[in-house]
Design a protein that fits this description.
Oligomer: single chain
Number of helices: 3
Distance between the termini: 34 Å
Radius of gyration: 17 Å
Largest sheet: none
Order of helices and strands: HHH
Shape: flat
Helix content: over 70%
Length: 97
Amino acid sequence: MKKLIRNIATFAPLALVSASAFASEAAAGGGEKSLGAAIAIGAAVIGGGLGQGKLAAAALDGMARNPQAKLVGPMIIGLALVESLVIYALLVAFVKY
């Protein structure tokens, strides 16, 4: 539980800071959309980062237990799939914006 709270306290300000990237439209009346896009991108990045960390840790643990295992290829594919979800969230935020 402490780790979750620490992660939220670390990454929540980053999600709110990204709203400044949309500041030009916020002054023109599109503030709600830009804040929603910033929160969506921030949440996607936090989730993607945590997922990539767990995936890499599990793959490295498997390689340490069995050095002959060929885990690099599947690990790279898994990391690419997790990263693609973050990119999709970025695209959705820009389309909604």
